[in-house]
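help with these tokens:
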Amino acid sequence: MSMESKFMKKLKPYVGVILLQFGSAGFAIVAKAALNQGTSHYTFAVYRNAIAALLFAPFALFLERKTRPKMTFTIFLKIMLLGLLDPVFGQNLFYAGMNYTTATVTSAMCNLIPALTFLLAWILRLEIVNFKRIPSHAKIWGTVVTVGGAMIMTLIKGPVLGLPWTHESNNANSSSSANNTQDPVKGALMIGAGCLGYSLFYILQAHTLKTYPAGLSLTALICTFGSLQGTVLTFMVERGNTSIWAVGWNAKLLAYVYGGIVSSGITYYVSGAIMKEKGPVFVTAFNPLSMVIVAVLSSFILAEQMDVGKVTGAIVIVIGLYLVIWGKSREQKEVMPITQQQHKSESSILATKTSEADNTKDSQISASEAGELNDSHSKIISGSEAV
């Protein structure tokens, strides 16, 4: 393998997670537009996952027809639980919590996902943590710094930077008007529970891929079961309210299609492929990067104001991500020689066993040949005595 191909192989996971964050940033915009038009978060989750299932199922059936593992009862239960954790539990609690609190609190709470995923992966031994090693400290503090940078972007404003392509918004404070129906504590608890659902989903997805490595099939099945379970939940909660199922050529349909293709289908598949190599912590560590992308794109496209808090938070997030990436890369370099040594040891043990088996076989053949010689010698002696 050439140096260029090795470099591209190492670069693929980083490009993949960055592109996922661009997709997440775009979905935040279209989803907010759909919710502002009165979209029910129950039907939002159902349609989003149903579209993803319809689009990915044919590719899974055709491309993985020879490599798809056999479905067992244990794998089936895991997929059912995956369809419940993110498409039903996580998405509905997250969007419902937005109705009870502000966008600022929502943005701050969703950055708990990297920290929760790291903690769960550590507890379940999916992530290596050795307090005596510097790479482990880099991963821990990198995760903390990344979450801290996202909090800075969300909670701290500071002086406005007068960039030439931006302008002051006259309606900057219009969205922060008081809302008597808000319950910040209830909203924060619901969003926090939704983030826990997302983190559990990433952990279980990484675990399921070890026994069911067909990524496209797993994605299609998760979206299918998520849509079915979401439909049952919607009928139970919204009995008699058939108007929430209406679909038109508007922002709602765009959000359903975009969410199904990008945020459900592509995100599940690509994140699963990256998890096989890097683990769930690596994937979720880049989540706060979407805030940086939204801030930069909003500055250029929507001419929104950029303040010191956003710039400072973005810089802190980049530093935290660098620490996580450095820690993961150093760990891989340390684990690789150990793995190679284990392979060598296994090969030498196998060679020794093969050699012993050959020697045993040769000794058995020699013994049988000696027995045959003794038998023939006895026959000759017996013949001579008879004569």
Observations:
- The radius of gyration is 29 Å.
- Confidence is low (pLDDT under 50) at residues 169-180, 383-387.
